[in-house]
Write a structure and sequence with these properties.
This protein has helices spanning 11-14, 17-24, 27-35, 41-57, 72-76, 82-93, 103-107, 111-129, 167-178, 200-203; strands at 145-150, 156-161, 188-189, 192-193, 209-211. By secondary structure, it is mainly alpha-helical. Strands 2-1-5 form a three-stranded mixed beta sheet, with helices on one face. This is Ubiquitin-like domain-containing protein.
């Protein structure tokens, strides 16, 4: 069952949501990535597809935009069915052009060029979807902490985050669970309100209890 479009998706893009979700639900592809140690890959695949919509709509033949670094796992997994996405995504968008990509060429770029192309992708994401991109945090092979967030209503939400995650990213993770609007959310630890731009490690690398 394909879910309804999220509330933040512009109405002009809502029609393609069913096609997008159908692509995301390629169980064989996601299962392979998860078995390779990259949980939760369904969310990474969704984010990857959102960026590929941008590349496809803009006809990014010169590869002027690069995906955020943590989404490269979707490209780099050796057995993914890239041909499926190359063909299905343009068809879902109603266009005929091929989506070019060479991860090997990108790997040879200077770091400054990579950064510029990723910034261009983030700018295009905000222009297309009307919001900043908030990444899901990779958990594989990296120590992470579980955070128990207690809301004013008494509900407890368990989220996971890296010490270098920002407070804003933790808020978005809480929103994904209980749909409390991020702009109305305040995170408090030990009587102190946490600032969106700060890292969890700025307060404590192993924050275990927060209040929202």
């Amino acid at each position: 069952m394909v879910p309804d479009p999220p509330f933040w998706l512009p109405s002009s893009l809502a029609d393609m949501w069913r096609d997008l979700k159908s692509l995301e639900l390629n169980r064989e592809f996601i299962a392979f990535l998860e078995d390779s140690g990259y949980p939760p890959m369904a969310k990474h695949v969704r984010d990857w597809l959102l960026f590929m919509i941008i590349k496809s709509r803009e006809g990014d033949g010169d590869v002027k935009t690069m995906l955020p670094d943590h989404l490269l796992v979707v490209w780099n997994a050796g057995k993914i069915h890239t041909g499926y996405y190359y063909e299905a995504l343009p068809r879902a968008l109603g266009i005929s052009r091929f989506i070019p990509h060479s991860r090997w060429a990108e790997e040879r770029l200077p770091d400054e060029e990579k950064m510029a192309r990723r910034e261009a992708a983030l700018t295009a994401f905000k222009s297309t979807y009307g919001r900043d991109y908030v990444p899901y945090i990779l958990r594989d092979r990296v120590p992470f902490t579980w955070i128990n967030v207690k809301t004013l209503s008494g509900e407890r939400v368990l989220v996971h985050a890296l010490p270098e995650a920002t407070v804003a990213e933790v808020k978005f993770a809480v929103f994904e669970v209980n749909r409390v609007p991020v702009h109305k959310m305040r995170l408090v630890h030990a009587g102190r309100q946490l600032q969106d731009h700060r890292l969890l490690s700025d307060y404590a690398a192993r924050v275990g209890q927060l209040h929202a």
